[in-house]
Amino acid sequence: MDNLPENLKQPMIDLLLAVADDKLMLGHRNSDWTGLGPILEEDIAFSSLAQDEIAHAQVIYELLSPLVDKTADELAYGRSIDQYRCAQIVELPDGFDWAVAIARQFFCDHFDRLRLRALSHSSYKPLADVASRLAAEEQVHVDHVDAWIVRLGKGNTDSKQRLQTALDQLSPIAPMLFEPVDHEAELITAGLYPQAETDMFHAWRDVLQHVAHEGGLALELSPPNAGAQGGRRGHHSEHLKSLLDEMCEVYRLEPGVAW
Amino acid sequence: MSGSSNVGMHIDHNVQEDPEKLAEFEAKIDAGQLIEPDDWLPQAYRTGMLKMAEHHANSEIIGALPEGEWITRAPSLRRKLALTAKVQDEVGHGQMLYRVSQDLGKTRDQMLRDLITGVTKYHNVFNYPAPTWGDIAMIQWLIDGAAIMNQKSLADGAYGPYVRTMKRINMEEAFHFKCGEDMVLTLMSGTAQQRVLGQDAFDRWWYPSLMFFGPPDKPNCRNLPPMRWRMKTVTNDDLRQRFINRFVPAAKDLGLNIHVVKKSDDGMVIEKQLDPNLHYDESTENWTVTDPDWEEFYRVIRGGGPCNKQRLSLRRFSYEQGRWVRSAIMNGRAGLPPAA
Asked: How far apart are the first and last CA of chain A?
C-alpha cells in the first residue's frame, strides 16, 4: 500500500520516529568522536558510521514529513523532549570511553539491522523501499562492530575487562530497544511491521551472545518487562535533555531560518 | 585544511654529501622531475621533508578540533552531515600525511607523542577560538580558502608522495571551501542576527588568515633549500597577496567589512575600525590592507595564543584515552606513555 489507513497513521508515526530518533541520537553521539578516535583509521571509519546514522535518520524524517506536515529539520530539532521516541541507550553519553561506544554500537546496530529487515517487508511500500536500502548499510555497521567486539575481547586482559564492564553496564537497559510504541501490535497485524517467525528479541540475543562468546565475553540479556515504560512512550533519561540542549543550541537562536 | 608555510626549517649545512649525487639530485629537481622515497636524498632534504610533512599532518589532526567541537551543535541535518564529513576529511588528510612522514623514517606513534608533548608544532592558526557557528563558516571559507592556495603551490613541489597527497587533499578542500562559501552566504543573506554572527566571526578570522601564510619573506628566501629544492614553490608574501586579491572583493560582495581589530588575550575582538589602508592599486592590480601584527604571530607560535593549551590538552586526552585500544589490537606495540 502507498497510503496508510487513518487508524494506523499515529502508530506508524510513532514507529518511524522511534527508528529515526534512535539513529539521530546514536549518530550524534558517535559523530562527537570525529577527530578524537583511538586510531586515525578507526576515527575515519567510525565517523562514516556516524554519518550513515544521521543520514538514515534524515531519510526516515523525510518519509514522516508529509504525515506530520513538518520538515526533517523541524522533526530533528524542533520537538519537545517528550515527543522523541528514542530508546534510552542512545541517550547515554559514553564519556569518551571507547569500550562504552563500541558496546552501545553493538547493541544498537544489531537491533537496527533486525528492525530494518522486518520493515523492508512492510506492506507500506515507501517504508519498505527505504528500509531495504538502509538494511544493507546497517549490515556493514554490524560487521564492523562485531570485529571490534572480538578483537577487544581477545586483545589483552585490560581490553577484555574494559569491554566486559561496558557490556555489563549497558546490558540491563539495552533490551528496552524492544519496548513497543503505542499500538505497535496493530501495525504488526496489518503487515506494516511484519515479524519474522523467530521472535526478534531472541534473534537479537542469540547473535549478540554468539559474537560476545567468540570474543570470550559474557553477556546476559532478558526481555524488557511487559509494563516497562521508556523512550518509546516519551519517558527519557536526563541525558536526552542535555543532548538536545547542545544539539539545538544554534537552531534555537532563530528556529525556522536557514543556516 | 592546513599547510606548512611557517614550519621552521633548520638545515645542517655541515653534513658532507657526495657532490656527484647531490648534483644529480639537484639536476633532477631543476628538470622538474619528481623525487621518490627510494631515490638518493640529501640528509637535509629528508629531514626537511619529514619536518614539513609531519608539521602538516599535525596541523590536520589539531585542525579537526575547533570544528569538531561544533559537529554536535550544527543547526540542521544537512550541516551536521557536511561538518562531520569535513572534519573526517581533515583526519583523513592527517592519516595520509603521517603515512608520507612514516616513509621518511619516523614512526606514527613517535610523531603523535612529539605533538602532544610540544616537541613538534602544528599550524598557528588553530590556536584561535571558534566561539560561534559563524566561526565555523569563516574557518571553512577563509582558512580552507587559504589552505587551498598554499597547497596548490605545494602540489607543484618535487617530492612525489607529498605532491600526490596534496593533489588528493586539494580536491577534498575544494568541497570544504564550497561548503564554507555556502555557509557564509547563508549567514550574510540571513537575518540581522545572522549577519552580525558572520561579521563578528570574519573580524576574528581575517588576521589569522593573513598570518596563515607565515611570516614576511626573508630577502634571500628563493635561494634557501626549501625553495631551491622545490619543497615550497611560492613565497609566503606572494601567497598572501593572492589571498588578499581573491578575498577582499569577495568579502565586500558578501557585505562584510574589513576591520583592523584589537583582541583580548582570549582572542575576542575588543576594538575595531574600518581598515584605513584598504585600497586597490590600479597599477599593480593588487589590493592593499593593513599588515597583521607580527608580534602577535610570534607570541602565538611560542605558545601564548588564546587556545594553545586547550588544543594540545584535547589532543593529549584523545591520545591517552585511546592508548589501551591501540595496545590491545597492536599486540602491545603501541607506544609508551608520553613524558609529562
From this structure: 36
Question: pLDDT band at B8, cuts 50/70/90?
Answer: very low
Using the beta-carbon criterion (under 8 Å), do B71 and A31 form an inter-chain contact?
A: yes
Of B311, B49, B5, which is closest to residue B147 (Cα–Cα)?
Answer: B5
- Cα dihedral sign for B129, B132, B138, B139? positive
**A234 within domain boundaries:** yes
ipTM entry: 0.97
Residue A38 amino acid letter? P
Measured between CA atoms, how close is B39 to chain A, in angstroms? 28
Distance from CA of B67 to the nearest CA of A (A): 9
pLDDT the model gives residue B333: 55
Q: How many CB atoms lie within 10 A of CB B299?
A: 12
Residue B74 CA to residue B8 CA, distance in Å, equals 36
Percent of chain B with pLDDT over 90: 90
Residues 6+ positions from A27 with CB-CB distance below 8 Å: A50, A51, A52, A53, A54, A56, A57
Number of domains in chain A: 1
User: Could you count the other beta carbons within 10 Å of the beta carbon of residue A197?
Assistant: 5
Asked whether the predicted pLDDT for residue B14 surpasses 90, the reply is: no
Listed residue (A221, A217, A222, A211) closest to A142, CA to CA: A211
CB contact under 8 A, A159 and B332: no
The CATH number of whichever domain residue A142 belongs to comes to: 1.20.1260.10
CB atoms within 10 A of CB A189: 11
Give the three cell numbers for residue A58: 534524515
> What distance in Å separates the CA atoms of residue A12 and residue A17, rounded to the nearest whole number?
8
Q: Are A20 and A73 in contact (CB under 8 A)?
A: no
Contact in structure between A74 and B77 (CB atoms under 8 Å): no
pLDDT tens for B267-312 read: 999 999 999 999 999 999 999 999 999 999 999 999 999 999 999 9
In Å, how far is B153's CA from the nearest CA of chain A?
27
Instruction: Identify the structural domains of chain B with CATH numbers, from first to last.
Output: 19-256 (1.20.1260.10)
For residue A160, the chain B residue with the least C-alpha distance is B328
State which residues form the domain around A104.
6-253
- Asked if the model's pLDDT at residue B7 lies above 50, the reply is no
Chain B environment of A43 (Cβ under 8 Å): 88, 91
Minimum mean pLDDT range among A17-26, B12-21, B26-35: B12-21
**Is residue A258 domain-resident?**
no
Q: Answer yes or no: is A111 within a domain.
A: yes
Q: Inter-chain contact B85–A51, Cβ cutoff 8 Å?
A: yes
Global confidence as pTM? 0.94
Those residues of chain A that have pLDDT short of 70 are none
DSSP state of B303: I
- Residue-averaged pLDDT of chain A: 96
User: What pLDDT digit, counting tens, does each position of B201-250 carry?
Assistant: 999 999 999 999 999 999 999 988 889 999 999 999 999 999 999 999 99
CB nearest to B329's CB, from A77, A155, A257: A155
